[in-house]
Amino acid sequence: MTSASGEFNAPRRARSQKGFLDIAGSAWQDLGDLIQAEMELLRAEISEKLTLTVWSVSLIGAGVILLVATLVLLLQAAIGALVALDVSWLGAILIVAAVTLVLGGSLVWSGFNNLAHRLTPTKTVAQVQKDAKVLTGSR
C-alpha cells in the first residue's frame, strides 16, 4: 500500500510541476504577445504622428512662402507707390505688409502649434502604463 501511495503521489507531483511550467510558459507567451501588440500600437501611432508632422511642415512651408512674398510685395508696393504719384506709397506698403504678415505668421504659428502638442505617443504611453498596472496588480 505504501508503494501504491508512493506511485500515486509521484504522478501528482509531476502534474503539478508540469502545470506550473505550462502556466509559466503561457505567461511568457502572453507577455510576448503583449509586447508585440504594444510594438504594433507604437508603429501605428508613430505613422500617425509622422503624417501630422508632414502636414505641419507643409503649413510652416506655406507660411514661409507668404513671409518671403511679404518682402517681394513690399518692394513692389514701394515701386508702385513711386510710379503712381496719386497713391500714398507708405499706405500701400503698410497695407500689403500687414496682410501678408498676418497670413504668413498665422500659418507658421499653426504649424509649430501642431508639432509642439501632438508628437508625443500618448496612446502607447497610456496603454503601457495600463498594462504595467495589470501586471503588477496595482490599481
What keyword list fits this structure?
3 helices; 91% helix; 139 residues; mainly alpha
Mind explaining what this structure looks like?
It is a single chain. The protein is an all-alpha fold and 139 residues long. It has one domain (35-136). Helices cover 91% and strands 0% of the residues. The chain is rod-shaped, with a radius of gyration of 34 Å. 4% of the residues are buried. The mean pLDDT is 78.
Short description:
The chain is mainly alpha-helical. It contains 3 helices and no strands. The model has no long low-confidence stretch (mean pLDDT 78).
Low-confidence stretches: none
- Rounded to the nearest angstrom, the distance between the terminal CA atoms is 51 Å
Could you say which structural class the secondary elements and strand pairing correspond to? mainly alpha
Q: Could you spell the SSE succession in H and E letters?
A: HHH
Backbone shape: rod-shaped
Please estimate the helix content: over 70%
